[in-house]
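Dear colleagues,

As part of the handover before I leave the project, I'm documenting each prediction I ran so the next person doesn't have to rerun anything. This entry is a single chain, and its sequence is reproduced below.
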Amino acid sequence: MTSIINIVIGLLLGAISGWLAGKIMKSEGSLLRNIILGIVGGVVGSVVLGLVGIGGSGYLGTIVVSVVGACILIFLARLITKK
């Protein structure tokens, strides 16, 4: 039961993070895109911020790290697609 709750919380945090990153970077997308962006952004943010010795803990820290990673992903996607 707790694993289902953890999955739901992870998806919710991913959606929030992806939505926030989209607002910050002025990039709109669907709920599914925001969830994916937030989850992948969490990985990217953890790696990038981990390289400079910064980490997040708790739900708020997770959202901040995911938003930073998602913003990096949006920036890189814009570089590649020239939008």
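The mean pLDDT is 88. The helical segments are 2-24, 31-51, 58-81.

All the best with the project,
I.
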